[in-house]
Amino acid sequence: xxxxxxxxxxxxxxxxxxxxxxxxxxxxxxxxxxxxxxxxxxxxxxxxxxxxxxxxxxxxxxxxxxxxxxxxxxxxxxxxxxxxxxxxxxxxxxxxxxxxxxxxxxxxxxxxxxxxxxxxxxxxxxxxxxxxxxxxxxxxxxxxxxxxxxxxxxxxxxxxxxxxxxxxxxxxxxxxxxxxxxxxxxxxxxxxxxxxxxxxxxxxxxxxxxxxxxxxxxxxxxxxxxxxxxxxxxxxxxxxxxxxxxxxxxxxxxxxxxxxxxxxxxxxxxxxxxxxxxxxxxxxxxxxxxxxxxxxxxxxxxxxxxxxxxxxxxxxxxxxxxxxxxxxxxxxxxxxxxxxxxxxxxxxxxxxxxxxxxxxxxxxxxxxxxxxxxxxxxxxxxxxxxxxxxxxxxxxxxxxxxxxxxxxxxxxxxxxxxxxxxxxxxxxxxxxxxxxxxxxxxxxxxxxxxxxxxxxxxxxxxxxxxxxxxxxxxxxxxxxxxxxxxxxxxxxxxxx
Amino acid sequence: xxxxxxxxxxxxxxxxxxxxxxxxxxxxxxxxxxxxxxxxxxxxxxxxxxxxxxxxxxxxxxxxxxxxxxxxxxxxxxxxxxxxxxxxxxxxxxxxxxxxxxxxxxxxxxxxxxxxxxxxxxxxxxxxxxxxxxxxxxxxxxxxxxxxxxxxxxxxxxxxxxxxxxxxxxxxxxxxxxxxxxxxxxxxxxxxxxxxxxxxxxxxxxxxxxxxxxxxxxxxxxxxxxxxxxxxxxxxxxxxx
Lengths: 496, 241
Hints:
The complex is a heterodimer of chains A (496) and B (241). Chain A has 496 residues and is α+β, with helices and mostly antiparallel strands.
């Protein structure tokens, strides 16, 4: 499918004459997304859109709140990656309090928290949300296609996934006091050191976690290569990639410069100070979606859209900072001479990142700086700060302006899912055109669209612990508004 | 006059001038309260310490202990009443514990836990209240004010500054700042004032110090409200005899 043909499916010429099919809510992601398809009389797809229909309002209601409250408040955006919001907000406010560079102890402790978050989030996505599709196939019986089904059929894989996630959450708990929505970072540093007893607790389990992470890379690799041709074709397209890298081009999750590369791997910009993100990244508004469409300014809104997240980061990095992850990256990059473009390759890249996070955790746990040293730093106050971090799902930007009374005056948050908006829509159009167009709709065909969305692990999935059994009702309506057929999936997973 | 009285079935000794609450605390019996502190004159506004004497409700914080008195405290009805009062304090303000810097050290939150409050029960009022962040060191967030007047009394009786007062009646009453501008920046309040320290919620806080204490080390992470109050009271009694 050519890019032009794909883009043509964004808006049908005469939508009023077409049948509308809605996948609402998209499952095994958080329940506030939907896909709409417009079909002609022969069931050919004429339009396909992913809509994020949630409205959160955080940027507005934190206005007027004291700035030190913000890292705790904004983490409530999400139940899976609150640590990312907590850290991105605190990084922005580090600048406001005049401490853009933390003490070595504080930075290492924040990194440990962040790597724990990356590990647990990636484990959750791969094992709980994505593995049912990957292990059972897209057309498998939907009542079985969930994490409970995986536990029954592949207990050895499922339990490792659960335990890996638990390990990541333990890292978060010992630092922030809670597995979800704890508190650790404060503007200018962190609250406390890692206790020796907690360090020893984590050291006891890190070897096993690392082993399982290696196995997970192997599973993702095997599943991808077993059906390589299909996986390279499914929801495939070429795009630019954006993410943070270290000054030397090394993979980076916490602190670095922004790098953008085009579909062939050529550099668009590199080592851009994240505070200057507005010079390089703009957002387009489209009338049919509540979510904006970011693009690289230098390329314009038609050509400048890009992807973020594991695939972007592994593609963009010149190397990984740890030996096992670097070995896995080199193997992964053999898939393509340029950047790997396949949507389904996200899963493999995600597991490479999880392995890297586990290796980095082990390195940090052996670092005595985590047990002692200065925790806080301050400096000259400035009114504005930007914090950028690589959250599990991609680049996360928090930007705040603080007034002279310490209250938030203005906030701008660009979350990972927003960056991937165009990419997810392109994948949805690609899958809709290739697999659904001209066919009688079945649950398995509709699931292909969800599989494409899930590969991006969108943040609308962050807050859910659902098991893929959300009620789903799809109506096929003719041009006159009469219902032609209905597929219904009940809360127990049964199809009627 | 001194002697003993009965708190439920327990005989409690008291000294001349002690209230039911003071005598109970001295004997190691906790009666829930929010607006009372041993350093300040009692106020009897939060009504959490309501007890029954001869079948009639009294505030234990203001009721003088009397010889032979029979005070009913720990009945299911009185516990329900205290819980309902606490629920009303929550719904009459805007208390967002998840993002509040006093969470874990807040007496209102601790009282709710102590009383087994599981939900708000009453409809939230979502009042529109003004925040005053004009002072360089002290923040006033009226959303969290329960109008207990601890700050009013502490500012007058301990700090000697008379910074606060309550204006209006009932649910529309509000904490006012004693300055022509109505703003904290035009008062003599300071971060170390007892008025700030005695605020049971996050209404009055010292700026830029929020979330200093890690979870696990906050006041009520380590002990519940009853233990904390009884230990503090015993320590004070030991100091002053």
